[in-house]
Amino acid sequence: MAVATLAVIVFGLMFFYGQASFAPTGPSEGTSPTADVDGGLTRAAPLVGFPVVVPAGLPDGWHPNSFTFTAAPGTAELPAAVRAGWLTDDGRFITLVQSAGQLPQIQQAELGAVESATGTEDVDGTTWTVVPGRRSEVAWVRPVGDVTYLITGSATPDEFRALAIAAANGTPAS
Question: Residue 62 belongs to what domain range?
Answer without folding.
Answer: 37-172
